[in-house]
Input
Amino acid sequence: MTSIESTLHWTVVALFALGVLGYVAAFGLHLASTKHASRRRAWNWMGLVPVAASFLAVAVLLLARGLHAGSIPFQSKYETFLIMMAGLAVGFVAFDLGGGLRKIKGWPGAWVALFGAAAAGTGLTFALLSKQEDAQALLKPPALQTYWIAIHTPCMIVSYGLLYVAVATAGLFLVLRAVTKRDDVGGLDWDNLVHSAMKIGFPFLTVGLFLGCVWGQEAWSTYWGWDIKETWAFITWAVFLVYFHLRRSPGADGVKSALVVVLGGAAILVTWLCMHLLPESVSSLHVYN
Amino acid sequence: MTEPATARSDAAPVTYGRAVLWTAVLFGLSWWAGLGETHGIAPAVLGIAFCVLIARRGVLRSQSLVMAGVTWLVLGAILELVFLDSLPAAPLVVLLGVLLVQFLAQLASDLRAFASPGDAVPPVTYAVTFALVPLLAFGAEMFRLARIVYSESVGAVVSMTIAASFLLLLAVWWDWTKRAFSSLKMAVTLLSLIGLGSLAGTIVIQHMPEDSVEAHHEKFMNGEGAAPVNARYLFSDPPVAWSDAEEARRAAMNEKFGAGEGDRWAKLQRQEKARKAKETEARAWVAANHDALQSFYELCESARLTRIFKTWYFNALLVLLGFTVVGVMARRWPYRWRDSGWVATHAGIVFTLVCLAASDLAVRDGFVQLAPTAAQGATDVPTEARSFKDQQDGGRPRGFGWTLRLVRTSADWYQELAVAFASEGGGVSAQQNFRLFPGKVIELERPSPDAPPRYRLEMIEVLDRCRTSQVGYRRGPGSGMTALQLVVDEKGAAGDHWVTDEETSPLALPGSQLVVVMAKSPEDAERALTARIPASTGSIGFVRVTSEGEELARIPATVGQSGEFDADGRRWRLVVSETTFDVTRSLAERKLPEAERTPVEKQVPGIGGATLLVSADGVDLQRANAFSGEFDEIGNGQMANPVLKKAGLAFHLDLVVPREVRVVVRPDDTAVCVIEERGTVSTPRALGAGDVLPIEGAAIRFGKLVRDAELDVTVEPLAAESDADYMRNGLSGVNEQPGRPAVRLRVTEPGAEPYEMWVVGGDPWTRTPLVESRDKRLKMVLTSTAESMYRSAVQAIDPAGNVLGEHVVRVNTPFRMGGYEFYQNQFMRPDQGGPVAVFRVKYDPFVPFLYAGFALISIGVIVMLWFPGQRAFKLHAHLAGLPEEGPKN
Output
């Protein structure tokens, strides 16, 4: 890892930390203030700007790595952490600006700030965890000498980042509900909120999964081999499909579907990071060391 | 969750918190009960008592209790892994039992609606769908079994009966079936069960097509046995030993290669040690729990969990999913524009499932292994294939209708510059590999982190392929090294061979060896001209017999020589029956008639071997092997004669070449040559540049002598071979890619002007020269670390010998011909039985259709979730008595 990359990485950590602080501060101001909600909106930029900036910093870091190694930097576990952070940051910005948050009636800014803090905190956790990983770029074997790695991998990992916005929202809901024993904490339609976050990430997961099939077919003639990584990507997809269907089956409530989203978050972690723990990893092509 | 009234219990609901508490008590009691020797009776009684208690309170089917049971089941599974071997399984079994009772109670309650007369269609509930779907899947497996287990006619009757009874069951409740197979609950059930089945497929080690039953069994036992050990060390690795030498190396690497580099090395080293420690622990665990693992293996095999993705029951789930999606689509008719995303997604899923089934039936899959025509004779592997073994058809051969010919195959390699610091004692104190990158600067050795680096290497030019017209030595500024050029004229090995006074290994020749002595003084030179091979040396040296490290006998290694020794309370007799200078060659020639084999006097010394006949009173004649060098361990290990090993005997070969051609370079730059044969030294003969050395069967000339030598290379870059050139050169008989990789470095070392030098590499099986900095502290070599790309030129030939098509195969550009696709997935190196290319052969006409299905699903999901005005759900909210949703999702 060059010193530029190291500096950029610490910048990302600092920006996510600033995002957490900014949102927490905004949350405090929202609670303390008596102003009209729409006039308090500006406070949330204290958190949103650093989170958006952290996306840029990760992008520059990936670019620097790519230029330095002379190849597409989407292979090692460390690099997937970077893409995950980028996905999380851009997913939250999309969720805030274009997705569900702005559409909440009466715009309860305090809650938006709390989501922001949860998402930025997740990003900060990943940024710190990834410091444990080996940052040395890997040598690509012949099977990975292909442009597909530049398409399939980021599509999957970005979807993980985007979906983690939904997982953070669903987790926040479950925690708040356990504390307050109310389904409509803060007067919000949590079910819809989680769903609008899910809507951003799920198409990426779907497209990424099928692009992986096409890559497999084009590179080694197997569109689907029930390799553990493939199987777990499918399980993750199936969990989120269960979410979409369970949410609308008769008699469903937001709690069960939120639980399924959290379960999906766990499935993402297994797919992404825990492959080496599965017994079947002895015959897998996709395991990080 | 508001279920229909029939599915709810009447009593006051239990809160989740209270349910967790009750279940905790059950968990704790059954843990305690599981510790006693009650053969499972006490935990079973506890489970039954718990069920009776909650049934009496009217909360047997309470959802909170189910959730609490699942919570404790998950917690228990985690505890089980953390406290491996010490936590009884009883609590988990009891919880599972209680959950089963709760499920059956709910099912019984839900099924009551089917029995009651009336026109109302019974509701679709999770209890029923979760019971029915596995039952249908099980039916599919029974259908398959009936056809395998019984004779054809009986099998047909039994399987049809099974199928008919299921169809009848579904027909009787046709209205319910229609509703169920178009319901969201069925979709959730199927997706959950498919997910669980897939999960099982990642936990149970699967049969690979290339695995034998034994290989899979071993993989299964070791892999499953390692899992609990891996889980135990999920958050902290096992402690590992760290020696002073390793610590010194870490510190040296931090100093030489930059702060943090040594720490990184140490971290990776520790990880590797931890991995090995875990492996050892896992092996011990597997040994200790062999019986339990074996019964788990048998369970998985009998339930076909080791082939789950090929089972009928798993595929039945996918078929049912297809039916359900069709049912849902039919029920949603007529469609509106705002349904387009939803329709595309679901039609895509059905289409993809149909294509998957079709692809599974049509696919042909196998491997062909070919040697290139451009390197004909290098291996026994054929250069052409007319057919392959179809793995989808039990390995039966299937012809292409034409011939596939491999013209040429090769691999490119990643090159790295290995830089090592020479330590005082002559070894290496720290070493690091660097990727090649033009303009890259490597700064080395800082006495303190803030100090400027003492060495600086800049990669000025990196060449993938170049022609090195002369890899030799020239006079440099005071390196102190002496180099001697030997010009080899032999066919196939023509070129320069350089010998330096720092690399003194002899040059092996047929039946003898060439030793070059660069004498430092006239006395050294005189000494080198006197005899030094013992007169008693056998044809390949001496056979040595030891017992517990103590030498018992040393016998000349010549056929027919014998000796005696005492060991294990007996008198033993040993006769040398065969000798060879080159075990590999002798093995390869074993099939030839004796007269055609190379006699030992003509063999080039490598790994030597002697076959010995050993006997003693009361012991039958035994055969033993003695090997030299690195094979010694194998000869006395896995290849040892068990009888002799039991008697404590070990056999070694001290390889001594009895004939030696010695070139002695005197300090005054004159050179002489002597031949020694077992202590008899010929008269010294003066050598001058161009003189042929007196070696039989080899044409080697004495070249120039260079004092203060440094590596001299002229490098001429080669353009990359285009695919067309690759094919053309292959057809004219060239297999190896011409040229070698090289990097030009600008070296800055302490107290000297910067200078430039080339470091030249090569394929991993060729010798690449070690280069030193002028101050001799840095040693550098270009190494091949991994394959970066394969390339193979192939042709399709019709029976008349015409070329139907040709192509250069790389990853992502397979050769396509007659519906077949050839993907290269392996390259065997020339030093490992190659050059050979291994191709995966695939025939699957449905791939384009599958891609269309994937595209349809992807586009559908995007449209459904991202386009305004699209709706994902319509029918079911209405059916459940909820107001129909508008266009919002």
